[in-house]
């Protein structure tokens, strides 16, 4: 009896679909890593402002720890009981902080004067003028005194 290769073995369709999706994901990660590795880190950091540098560092750390999570799972180790879980949570906390800073930075760019002019003009509705001659103002009523 000859040995069958893994590709020649028959699997249920669902498993085959999962394996193909996994292979596609791994290939996508590989392409992304090749792109990131094609530029030196120092060269890349020079092109980024400090906030973007922080985002890059956090995404890199999160990605590496996520890959380690997958590695642990492939070795039969429960990653939920490993310190990598706390590390991923810590990185997520910093990612949220960076997001808050980025959101505040975007909000600060709002030109309040332009925004108020825009709203004033958008909400302004001129009073319709009748084609009949303009009415003369009615004099104010006198106050009654007792």
Keywords for this entry:
146 residues, mainly alpha, elongated, 0% strand
Write a structural description.
The protein is an all-alpha fold and 146 residues long. Among the domains are: 12-39; 48-109. The chain is built from five helices and no strands. α3 (50-74) packs antiparallel against α4. The protein is elongated. 1% of the residues are buried. Residues 1-5 have low confidence and may be disordered.
User: Ranges with pLDDT <50 over ≥5 residues?
Assistant: 1-5
What pattern of helices and strands is seen along the backbone?
Answer: HHHHH
Mean pLDDT over all positions:
81
Q: Estimate percent helicity.
A: 55-70%
The gist of it:
GO terms for molecular function: DNA binding; nuclear receptor binding; RNA binding; transcription corepressor activity. The chain has helices at residues 13-37, 41-46, 50-74, 84-108, 112-123.
List the helices and strands and how they pair.
Elements: H1 13-37, H2 41-46, H3 50-74, H4 84-108, H5 112-123
Pfam family, one: Sas10_Utp3
Subunit structure: Monomer and homodimer.
GO cellular component, one term: cytoplasm
């Amino acid at each position: 009896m000859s040995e069958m290769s893994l590709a020649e073995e028959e699997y249920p369709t669902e498993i085959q679909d999962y394996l193909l999706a996994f292979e596609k994901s791994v290939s996508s990660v590989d392409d992304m890593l090749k792109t990131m590795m094609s530029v030196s880190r120092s060269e890349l950091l020079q092109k980024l402002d400090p906030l973007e540098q922080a985002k890059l560092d956090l995404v890199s750390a999160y990605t590496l720890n996520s890959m380690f999570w997958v590695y642990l799972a492939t070795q039969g180790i429960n990653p939920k009981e490993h310190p990598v879980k706390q590390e991923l949570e810590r990185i997520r906390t910093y990612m949220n902080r960076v997001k808050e800073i980025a959101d505040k930075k975007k909000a600060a760019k709002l030109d309040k004067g332009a925004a108020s002019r825009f709203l004033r003009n958008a909400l302004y509705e001129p009073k319709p003028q009748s084609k009949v001659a303009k009415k003369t103002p009615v004099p104010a009523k006198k106050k009654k005194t007792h």
